[in-house]
Amino acid sequence: MKKQIIIILFLIFFVPSICYSKLHFGIISGVKEKVKELKNKIDEEEKKVIPPNSPSADWVDADGSGQESINISNTNGTYASYLSLCLDGAGNPHIAWHDYTSENYEIYYLKWDGSAWVDADGSGQESINISNNSEGSCYPSLCLDGAGNPHISWYNYTSENNNDIYYLKWNGSAWVDADGSGQESISISNNSLSFKFPSLCLDGTGIPHIAWQYRLFDDIYYLKWDGSVWADADGSGQESINILNNSGHSYHPSLCLDTAGNPHIAWDDDTSGNYEIYYLKWNGSAWVDADGSGWESINISNNNKVSDSPSLYLDGTGNPHIAWHEYTPGVDTGIYYLKWDGSAWVDADGSGQESISILYLSGSSRLSLCLDGTGNPHIAWDGYYGIYYLKWSP
Question: Of 98, 104, 182, 380, which has the fewest CB atoms closer than 10 Å, so is most exposed?
Fold first, then answer.
């Protein structure tokens, strides 16, 4: 009789609880699946969205028709950011960026072959990942040599106080280090100092020049390879490695070389109390601003907004062109562009600055500027779920 009572009590109290738990778990699991499905749908829709305030029809994507292929990465909701853009002799864009698709920050690279975006070997995208290591690889800087082969420098994170600058080049069949054999010398800094935001350029002989932010003092450093050692702008030692020594915080250098091999550098700086875009060039004996005399016109943006992340390019006459982010806190982010015409900074149409703003957008942190053979600007930037690209076609 006692056994029967225990069985009855079990049926009354425990079985419903077990059933309820299973039912509850099933409901929760079903809800989670629906939420996951909804998120995936939202992600797919958001990837199709071109940022608000789309640019004018004068800006077109890589195929030259419209803006339907503006997104070149389509990274399925993962982080694709901090890109670097170069154009080859045919005017085709090459782009490097850091990407979290593999659940580790890696350096990715693609080029436009005239009809599709492909990796360095020119076939598909199976070798899109350049760094391919277990450490954090970020902030790539891309250059093309005379043969159109890509060279990439980036920041490699090993530990908090050990951040090396890495460099590889494509030799036509593989990614190799500076000596052209393997990758055993991939690290060019190889020490425990803290570097960030490298900017790479090659001179006419293919010699690398690099500018970067030294995080300890937030200054801009510059060195060039003289064939046997790394030297500063005057070519003797490294006593002038720091081009600024100012009281502000200096970030995001962008380096270009003129036909004489002299460096030009743009960066963002808060020395004035507000982040602005600064620019200097080496004239052979000193760092000077665009007019070639002193530093009185070092500030290019010169407004009350937050200006940052510049990208610098020089035209055939050696005049600088600069694109950057312009941010009004709580309002909007814009991509701005100006060029030096020999006496003043003007917008893309060459008349004044009324068209300084190319477009407004959200979710962008990095852009990259290049000029084609006719001097027209091409700009790529990162946005929500992708890498975007437009060119000026008046």
Answer: 182
